[in-house]
Every structure is written in C-alpha cells, then in structure tokens.
Amino acid sequence: MFINGAFVKGQDARLPIWDHGLLYGDGVFEGIRAYAGHVFKLDDHLARLVDSMRGVDIRLDVDSVALRELVCEVLRRNELRDAHIRVIVTRGIGRPGLDPRNCTQPSLIVMAYPFPPLLGREPIRMISASLRRKAPYAVDARIKSLNYLDSILAKLQAIAAGVDDALMLDLDSRVAEATGENVFVVKNGVISTPLLVAALPGITRATVIDLAGDLGHAVQERALTLGDLYTADEVFLTGTAAEVVPVAEIDGRVIQGGETGPITAELIADYQALVTSGQFATPIFASRGRNRDDD
Ligand SMILES: Cc1ncc(COP(=O)(O)O)c(C=O)c1O
Questions:
Q1: How far is the CA of 20 from the centre of ligand 1 (A)?
Q2: Residue 289: per-residue pLDDT
Q3: C-alpha span between 8 and 113 (Å, rounded)
Q4: Of 89, 155, 206, 211, which one has the greatest count of Cβ atoms within 10 A?
Q5: What is the location of CATH 3.30.470.10 in the chain?
Q6: Do residues 246 and 268 touch, judged by C-beta distance below 8 A?
Q7: 31-90 pLDDT, tens digit each
Q8: What is the DSSP string of 8-71?
Q9: Is 41 a catalytic residue?
Q10: pTM of the model
C-alpha cells in the first residue's frame, strides 16, 4: 500500500494515533474496483474524492493525474488485476483538539486487496432501520467521509434482526439509501431511485441509470417511501463494493417471491459485462511503473 509518501507492505503500514482521521473521523475516502486489469470509472471516483475534500476543505497537494498513477502503481505492486481499492485522505497528523489548523498536511493512503461482492450474489433480506440517515443540512450527502456511524448503527439493527442489510430513511421519512449502497425500485416496468437528498451520488447508481436507459427504461429520480418499496415488483441495491444486488425481502414483505426480478437480472448481467469490457476504464499495466510483488 501507499501511505504518506512510501510504498510499504500492509503489515508494515503505520500511522500516528494523532492522525485526525482516527481522532475525529476527519477525512474522506473512495471505494473503487478494478476488473480484469482495468480500474472502472477511476476518474469519476477521483472527481468525487475531490468534491469530498472540497466539502470538508482538505487541501491535498497531489493532483488527480498523480492520484490516478498512484492507484495503478499500488495495484501493479500487488499484482492485482481484480481488486477493491481504497483511497483515504485525512486531515492529517496534529495535536489533539479538533481544530483542523492543528494538522499541517493531509495523510494520503492508497490500498488494494481482493474483495468479493460485499453482500454476495443471492437476493438479500433487509429491514428498514429506525435510525435515520445523517441530516444533509448537517453533513452534505455528497461528502464520502470517514464518519459511517449512522450506517454502522443501522447495520447493527439489521444484524440484530437476522437480515443482511438495512434501508435508511431521511428525516422526512423518505427512503435515502442502504448502509453503503443506493436503492432502486421497479413497479409496472418503471424504474425509480431516490433523489440525492440524503444519499451519496453513487457511481454505480449513475452507471445503472445509463444501462437502464440503454435497455429503454428511463429511470425516475423521485421521493420514495417505504410503501413504494413494500409494494414494488423488484428492488435492488447498487454500489461499487456490492455491485448490483437483488432484494428479496424488506421488513418481512417478500419481493418477487424472493427471486431476482427480470429487470434486476438484466441490469446485473449488463453491469458485469460493462465493468469487464474495458469501457470507462483505466488500464493498470499500460501506465509507467515497475511490477513488483513485495508490497
Ligand atoms: C453510503 C453509501 N451510499 C452509496 C454508495 C454507493 O456508491 P458507489 O456506487 O459510488 O460505490 C456507497 C459506497 O460508496 C456508500 O458508502
């Protein structure tokens, strides 16, 4: 992995406990995937990282071209062609006290590792969490920050209920997203997804909207209630880590008889075809750099 200027083995990576990413969750990150030697939509992820940094006013002295090369170099050094990649930028190492001026320089970490689809490939069971998504007028939903406690508390509720994941509502009781995925519903052939009020602007969400368009389905972005999901013909989640995941059950309501619906199945197939096609992709091995297996 790469950590603050050096390539090191994962077990040798060290970060002082005074890093404000640890002390206060003061930082942002991206989760990215590489397929078959290509990083999918790397520039979109780096653009979102830049937006997240702007949102919290972290000024990293590394431009997007250098970041792109760094991601590829970490993959090359690990000889990974299929991987999940995490780019983390924290406020940096500083004295205690949450004043960002205590930190002189952001910390930058890039790591990559094999990672199967986060929620598996089978239709999943969900509950709606009683906990709400963090208020967008407190933390902008566009900021992919190191603070995931609302998602983690919702995930704990899902685990306690014996299901796979939780849906989270916003403060107006509209469906926002899952703990780390965006959500879509299909009803009478119409696909809808929540507005980006309290949901991360997912890159997989945008990809799936385009794929649905290619199939002749315009996707409606609109306010959705839990009732819209309970009565849907199909529900599915999207995310880089999870990819496209069918939902079999929400709060005990079985959807599509617990099977993957036809539109969901089409989108899963098209998504897999796209991410392995080399389109929208940065080749890992075409750019300069050495191949090493030591870190
Ligand atoms: C809260 C949240 N929503 C949605 C997503 C899906 O976003 P993407 O498709 O860009 O991975 C993620 C994953 O990053 C997430 O953490």
A1: 23
A2: 44
A3: 14
A4: 89
A5: 2-115
A6: yes
A7: 999 999 999 999 999 999 999 999 999 999 999 999 999 999 999 999 999 999 999 999
A8: --GGG----TTBHHHHH--EEEEEEEEETTEEETHHHHHHHHHHHHHHHT---S--HHHHHHHH
A9: no
A10: 0.95
CA of residue 88 to ligand 1 center, whole Å: 15
Mutation test residue for ligand 1: of 145, 168, 184, 200, the one with most atoms within 8 Å of CB = 200
Fold of 124-275: D-amino Acid Aminotransferase; Chain A, domain 2 (3.20.10)
291 has a pLDDT exceeding 70: no
Residues of the chain with CATH 3.20.10.10: 124-275
Pocket of ligand 1 (CB under 6 A): 31, 151, 177, 180-182, 200, 202-205, 238-240
Pocket probe mutation, ligand 1, options 88, 118, 181, max atoms within 8 Å of Cβ: 181
Rounded CA-CA distance 34/243 in Å is 12
CATH 3.40.50.11440 fits 2-115, yes or no: no
